Amino acid sequence: MRKKIGMLLVIVSVALNVAFVAVWATHAIPRYLCRHGRTEYAEGIRCPLHRRLGATEEQWREIEPRLVEFRKAAQNVCAEVNKSREELIDLIAAPEVDRSAVAAKQEEILAGQRKMQSLVIEHLRSEKETLNAEQQETFFRMLRRRSGCASHGSAMGMGLGSGPPMSETCRGHGTE
């Protein structure tokens, strides 16, 4: 029984990591660029990622409102999934584990993860529409390099997350 619960927690943990990879990437890439002193960007574009891509002021006017909306939506979904995850842990920690309640909570978490994945896919699609071919190539190359489940790496079959840690923050990133 304990092995099953332990395995369930591992599966839920890995699933959450995968669900939030794209959100992490939207924060990690700009931090990485900032940490490496890339300050030769166009004035007025506050996002280091888009400065690195060489986005024009016109492109930024299209991208910025969508980015703000994406961040708000992603933050809300993330909060919902985190709440469900905490509730799942409480269910498992209870003296008597209600398997049907645990299964229902898992489904709730998976639904939130699907919602997050849909948000990310739609956001990437809209970014792609705004960027020219060269910018798209750079953008997706950066995403491939910087996204992944860094704590699990290739042992989980991902082969991602091999770059430096992204713990430092970058002032001026985003639209604050």
How is the topology of this model organized?
Blueprint: H1 2-19, H2 21-35, H3 48-52, H4 57-93, H5 99-130, H6 133-146
What features would you describe in this structure?
The chain is 69% helix and 0% strand. The protein is mainly alpha-helical and 176 residues long. It starts with a helix and ends in a 30-residue tail after the last helix. The model is unreliable at 37-43 and 150-176 (pLDDT under 50).
What's this, in brief?
The protein is mainly α and 176 residues long.
- Unreliable sequence segments: 37-43, 150-176
Number of strands: 0
Q: Give the helix/strand class.
A: mainly alpha
Taken in chain order, the helices and strands follow as HHHHHH
Radius of gyration over all CA atoms, rounded: 19 Å
Helical run tally: 6
Q: Kindly report how far apart the N and C termini lie.
A: 47 Å
Describe the sheet with the most strands. Answer: none
Oligomer: single chain
Net shape: elongated
